Amino acid sequence: MRITTTVNGEPREVDDVWEGESLLYVLRERMGMPGSKNACEQGECGSCTVMLDGLPVCACLVAAGQAEGREVVTVEGLADGSGDERALHPVQSAFVDAGAVQCGFCTPGLVVAAADLLRRTPHPSDPEIREALAGNLCRCTGYGKILDAVRLAAQRCDGRASDAAEAAR
Ligand code: FES
Ligand code: FES
């Protein structure tokens, strides 16, 4: 079957998709977007987290056909600036600055989930951060630096909003 969807703002069309294929498979293997990772393929780890019509989902559990006509945002779509690598999303730069970047499996999902949290809740409490990231598992470390990174991103987003309000006066 043919799937027509929007990924990171770009209309995409993929042919010959088998009914059993996941959105994750289509993103990675058919669209050449390897940012969303396949670690468990069972909805347990969150490494495949993407936004589907503004809601975070495990792309490994979403049938590709469910993305028909809908908007998908992957970790590749978070950075701003058309190729300018310095224009990272605030969550991405905070992960770098706080030393929260871990392996390539867990980090993309954590970044997408954290960005979704700050979009919904600009000033999250620690329990809110923990709850938002509860579906994103790292098998290797504690989550201290990750919490630091989300707090830092929230502060920076807050600062930007204040600066914009000041400039508008
Ligand atoms: S790969 Fe989808 S939740 Fe683990
Ligand atoms: S799973 Fe990525 S560092 Fe632990």
Briefly, what is this?
The chain has 169 residues and is an alpha+beta fold. 37% of the residues lie in helices and 12% in strands.
Order of helices and strands: EEHEEEHHHH
Describe the sheet with the most strands.
Answer: 5 strands, mixed
Neighbour order of strands in the largest sheet: 2-1-5-3-4
Bound molecules: FE2/S2 (inorganic) cluster
- Radius of gyration, whole Å: 16 Å
| Secondary structure tally, helices | 5
Seen as an oligomer or otherwise, the chain set is single chain
Query: What structural class do the secondary elements suggest?
Result: alpha+beta
Inertia-based shape: globular
Whole-number average pLDDT?
Answer: 92
Q: Stretches where pLDDT falls below 50 for ≥5 residues?
A: none
Strand content: 5-15%
| Helical fraction | 25-40%
Count of DSSP strands: 5
**Terminal residue distance:** 53 Å
Q: What are the defining features of this structure?
A:
single chain; 169 residues; alpha+beta; five-stranded mixed sheet; 5 helices; 5 strands; binds FE2/S2 (inorganic) cluster
Any overview of this molecule?
With 169 residues, this protein is of the alpha+beta class. 37% of the residues lie in helices and 12% in strands. It contains five helices and five strands, in the order ββαβββαααα. The chain has helices at 23-30, 90-97, 106-120, 126-132, 144-168; strands at residues 3-7, 10-14, 49-52, 55-58, 71-73. The protein has a five-stranded mixed beta sheet, sandwiched between helices. The protein is globular and about 50 Å long. The protein starts with a strand and ends with a helix. One FE2/S2 (inorganic) cluster is lined by residues 102-103, 105-106, 138-141.
